[in-house]
Structure formats: structure tokens, C-alpha cells
Amino acid sequence: MRILIVEDNVKLAGYMKQMLEENSYSVDTYHDGKTGERSARSDSYDLLILDVMLPERDGIEVCKNLRNDDINLPIIMITAKGEVDDRVAGLDSGADDYLVKPFDMKELLARTKALLRRPQVAFNDLVKVQDLVMDSSKHEVTKKGKKLALTLKEYAILEYLMINVNTVITREQLLEHCWDFAYSAFSNITDVYIRQLRKKLQDDNEKYIETIRGVGYKFKAE
């Protein structure tokens, strides 16, 4: 597996590179947004670890540019800002996960493994619920025939909800299924992703995803 790190703190980038290489990953590092984005477009990486505050071009813009061009490379966003709005901005730009500095290298490794090892679920048939169609062979979802621009994590959550249509899914189940490791300290991240999915589904009135207060969510058949 080949990983790209774009981080302007040379020392931190070095620590991350060393840790990942010790765990058998191949790692390249760059220290500005323009070079990092150009490298990410080479289609030779399995994961991008992207800092928000970068010279030349910030990480939010890099992430948006990649997603706008349908580059679905898994992205872990790194930020020194811990406010909820800043985390949401990173996720809204298309990142699959985020880490707030300072963080433990073991946590970065765990999240890296989680994104890289997530199994691809194969279906014999298309999954159709209301006016949504999920095609696992193409890894895409359409609404009334129009393709939705979903990140890998958004797709994974929507996939799990649609497969379990009309079944109440707890936040813990979403965490276990879509993150593959203990995420209890960040359990509110499920709410962030549901908010993103609702925005992309134009689901203002919970036509698709119903909130079951104190429990979790249910994807409605009708």
C-alpha cells in the first residue's frame, strides 16, 4: 500500500512517514498544497493524509478539487483546529476522516488501517429504496437517475442504512461497521456524516433517513 502525506511541518511529516514505513507502508511526503494535489492526481496512491494549513494551497481546497474531479482517494484530514465547525468544514470538503493535532501515532495508524482494509460488499442485484439506486459494481448511488457525489465514508454509511432498510441502526453499529475500530471518543462523528448525507440527498424533512432520538437512524422504505 502506498500513502501520500502532505504536511508542511517537516518534523511531523517525518514522524508519520517513519511510523507508517515501520508498518510496511510505502510513503511519500510533500510540504505544500499545490505539489501535494498534483501528486494525489497521479492515481498511484491508496491513501492521502492531508494537513489543512498548507502553503500555496490549503488542504480544504485540495480536497475539494480532488472530489470535484471524481478522485475518490481516501483522505484523512489533519488540523490544528479543534472546533466542531472546523472539523465539519474538513468533512464537507470530501475528507473521509479527520485528526486534530496533537494526536497519537497509534491513532493515525488505526485510522489508516481502517480506511485501507474496509471490505467491499458485493451484491448480486442493485439495491433500490424509494428513488435511490445503489450499484455496488460501480460503487455509486443515483437519485432519480442522477449520480450523487459521495465520499467513501458517506457511501459506506448510506450502503449500511439502505441494506438495513426500515431497521433502526444505532450509532454504535455505524461506528463498528464503517470505521472498523473503537471510535467511542468521537461518536458524534456519525451525526456529522448523517448531516452531510441529508444535504446531498436533499433530505430536509427526513424523507429518507429518520432520526430515532437517543438511539440512531432508520432508512425508510417509503
Commentary on this structure:
The chain is an alpha/beta fold and 222 residues long. It has 2 domains: 2-117, Response regulator (Rossmann fold, 3-Layer(aba) Sandwich); 127-219, Arc Repressor Mutant, subunit A (Orthogonal Bundle), CATH 1.10.10.10. Helix content is 39%, strand content 22%. The chain has helices spanning 10-22, 33-40, 59-68, 84-92, 105-117, 152-163, 171-179, 189-201; strands at residues 2-6, 26-30, 47-51, 75-79, 97-100, 127-129, 132-135, 140-143, 146-147, 168-170, 209-212, 216-219. The strands form 3 sheets. Strands 2-1-3-4-5 form a 5-stranded parallel sheet, sandwiched between helices. The protein has a 4-stranded antiparallel sheet with strand order 6-7-8-9, with helices on one face. Mean pLDDT is 86; it is low at 119-124.
